[in-house]
Amino acid sequence: MLFQPPVFETIFRTPVEHRLVIRGSRSRGAPLDGVRWYHDEFDAAGTLVARYETYDETDEAGQERCGWRRFDGAGRLLARHEVAMRWSALVALKQSRRAAEIALQRAGAHAAPAPLPRRAWQPDRVSAA
Description:
This protein is of the alpha+beta class. The protein has a single domain (about 10-105), classed as Nuclear Transport Factor 2, Chain: A, CATH 3.10.450. About 15% of the residues lie in helices and about 35% in strands. It has helices at about 10, 85-95, 95-105; strands at about 20-30, 35-40, 50-60, 65-70, 75-85. A 5-stranded antiparallel β-sheet has the order 1-2-3-4-5. Strand 2 (about 35-40) and strand 3 (about 50-60) form a beta hairpin. Helix 2 crosses helix 3. The protein starts with 7 loop residues before the first helix and ends in a 24-residue tail after the last helix. The relative contact order is 0.18.
C-alpha cells in the first residue's frame, strides 16, 4: 500500500475560510527514518496566523513517533501533540485514515503550553546523509 499522509487541515482544525499552504517537506532514510512537512496557515485576509511542522519518524533512539507543532508568526510554540507510533501504525490501530487524523488532533491541543524563550522561527534541520 502506498503511503498516504494525513489530511493536515483535519489535524490542525484549519477553519474553512483559512488557507493551508505547504512550504516543503524533508525525508530521510535509515538508520533514522522519517518525513517532515512544513505548512503556513493564512486567514481570509491573507495574514499569516500559524506555521506548522508535522513529522512521521523513527528518532535517534529508535523510538517511533508522529506528531505536529504549531508556531505563531514570530516562531513561538503554541501547541503540540505526539503519539508514540508511526503514522501507518496509527491508521492501522484506528482502522481508518480519518480516525487516525482525529486521534492526532488531540482534544484541547490548541491550548498553549508554558512559554518558551523567544527566538526567530527556523525549521528543524535534517541532514542530507
